[in-house]
Automatic annotation (TrEMBL):
<feature type="domain" description="ABC3 transporter permease C-terminal">
    <location>
        <begin position="287"/>
        <end position="399"/>
    </location>
</feature>
<dbReference type="InterPro" id="IPR050250">
    <property type="entry name" value="Macrolide_Exporter_MacB"/>
</dbReference>
<dbReference type="InterPro" id="IPR003838">
    <property type="entry name" value="ABC3_permease_C"/>
</dbReference>
<dbReference type="InterPro" id="IPR025857">
    <property type="entry name" value="MacB_PCD"/>
</dbReference>
<dbReference type="GO" id="GO:0022857">
    <property type="term" value="F:transmembrane transporter activity"/>
</dbReference>
<feature type="transmembrane region" description="Helical">
    <location>
        <begin position="372"/>
        <end position="393"/>
    </location>
</feature>
<keyword id="KW-0472">Membrane</keyword>
<keyword id="KW-0812">Transmembrane</keyword>
<feature type="transmembrane region" description="Helical">
    <location>
        <begin position="21"/>
        <end position="41"/>
    </location>
</feature>
<protein>
    <submittedName>
        <fullName>Peptide ABC transporter permease</fullName>
    </submittedName>
</protein>
<comment type="similarity">
    <text>Belongs to the ABC-4 integral membrane protein family.</text>
</comment>
<keyword id="KW-1003">Cell membrane</keyword>
<dbReference type="GO" id="GO:0005886">
    <property type="term" value="C:plasma membrane"/>
</dbReference>
<feature type="transmembrane region" description="Helical">
    <location>
        <begin position="328"/>
        <end position="352"/>
    </location>
</feature>
<dbReference type="Pfam" id="PF02687">
    <property type="entry name" value="FtsX"/>
</dbReference>
<dbReference type="Pfam" id="PF12704">
    <property type="entry name" value="MacB_PCD"/>
</dbReference>
<feature type="domain" description="MacB-like periplasmic core">
    <location>
        <begin position="21"/>
        <end position="243"/>
    </location>
</feature>
Length: 407
């Protein structure tokens, strides 16, 4: 019996039991749809973040301490101040380095204008005016005095009347101190919709955390540094010079914990690291969703066994007129593969539809996981083959005499 004849007979069997065939493929449909949905959402999320970062690409590096979590995947930043004033001054003297801007969080618990207060929403950062070297100002300019501040667009829109350059802003700190600063500028959001409301204040006026250096001195230290290169052409040698200093000569190298590592990341490094983490998480979630495929394959195997039992007499007639064991095996394998492929195709369509609705709702770009669509179809064929092997083998072993006596 040729394959074309097997397909025709198998398709006739499937269409003669439409409801049973539909219910049989549901497990495969759910499994494939879940995997494709998570892949679309993961790709869309990654594309959204990467697009925002690339749009703001500047010759700037971020110096940060990182460690691996005890459980889970990826890396986590360490917010420990280990980069001392001496390190900052030494880095500023390196060739190809245009500026070094320290950054540290300050404990602002409430911000207020004349008639409106906002509590616990704004992320307050202490830094220097160099931090805005490559930042686009919507209006105004960097701060130049102790009682001045810069806000970003989300922060400027927190109040009923948007903050503008020249407005006064009241900052209440965790220790109860309240100061009034003048907004000198409003900067664009850096990471699209993901950017939180931020206010930037001068580090000399609002940051006082000190540590004891390896030399025995007491110095102000920061958890993060921004290092600017002269231009894009010099960013690689500048990164190399910064890494060499931090690994071999800096206070930070001696102050960091044993399991921590100092990372000097450009925009390209950050994008690569971010996409690696998202890919790992997406793959993990997709693997969990793929459990449904196992359930689907069991469903197909179960129905194929029932089909062999129901068609025992038909198998006997086929063997009586010359069909071989191989013909019978081929017939049932083709039927189970068709069920698997139908489940995979419908699952891919359902997954793409659910993923499309998800990214539209979350306002992420649509991404088509072509590789995973091909894998899903291959898995559908594989599920059909695996789940149909035993029923096909069982059907091939049916004795034709006993089969013809079967009612």
């Amino acid at each position: 019996m040729n394959v074309r004849e097997s397909v025709r007979i198998a398709w006739r069997s499937i269409t003669s039991h439409k409801l049973r065939s539909t219910l049989t493929t549901i497990g495969v449909i759910i499994g494939v749809a879940a995997v494709i949905t998570f892949m679309v959402l993961g790709s869309g999320f990654s594309a959204s973040i990467v697009g925002d970062i690339e749009a703001e690409q500047e010759p700037v590096m971020v110096v940060q301490t990182q460690t691996e979590p005890e459980a889970g995947v990826g890396i986590v930043p360490v917010d420990t101040p280990i980069y001392t004033e001496s390190d900052v001054e030494a880095l500023q003297e390196r060739e190809d380095v245009a500026f070094v801007a320290p950054e540290a969080s300050v404990d602002v618990v409430q911000t207020a204008t004349d008639d409106e207060q906002v509590t616990g929403v704004i992320d307050a950062q202490a830094t220097t005016a160099d931090r805005f070297e490559h930042t686009t100002f919507v209006e105004g300019e960097p701060f130049d005095g102790p009682d001045e501040a810069v806000v970003n667009e989300p922060a400027s829109r927190l109040f009923e009347e948007n903050l503008s350059a020249g407005d006064e802003l009241e900052l209440a700190f965790e220790d109860g101190e309240v100061v009034t600063v003048t907004v000198t500028g409003v900067v664009e959001r850096e990471f699209g919709e993901q950017t939180p409301p931020q206010v930037f204040v001068p580090v000399d006026s609002y940051y006082e955390t000190t540590i004891e250096t390896p030399d025995g001195d007491e110095e102000i230290a920061y958890p993060t540094l921004q290092v600017g290169a002269e231009n894009f052409e010099r960013i690689d040698p500048a990164q190399e010079a910064v890494v060499d200093y931090l690994e071999e000569e800096s206070h930070a190298a001696e102050l960091k914990a044993e399991d921590d590592r100092i990372e000097v990341q450009t925009v390209e490094d950050a994008i690569e690291q971010f996409t690696d983490i998202v890919d790992q998480l997406t793959l993990f979630i997709g693997a969990v969703a793929a459990i449904a495929l196992v359930v689907g394959s069991i469903g197909i195997a179960n129905i194929m066994i029932v089909s062999v039992t129901e068609r025992t007499r038909e198998i006997g007639i086929m063997k009586a007129v010359g069909a071989t064991k191989r013909d019978v095996m081929q017939l049932f394998l083709v039927e189970s593969v068709i069920l698997g492929v139908i489940g995979a195709l419908v699952g891919v369509a359902a997954g793409l539809g659910a993923g499309y609705l998800g990214v539209r709702f979350l306002e992420w770009p649509m991404a088509y996981p072509v590789d995973w669509i091909a894998i899903a179809i291959a898995v559908g064929i594989g599920v059909g083959v695996v789940s149909g092997l035993y029923p096909a083998w069982r059907g091939a072993r049916v004795d034709p005499i006993e089969a013809l006596r079967h009612e």
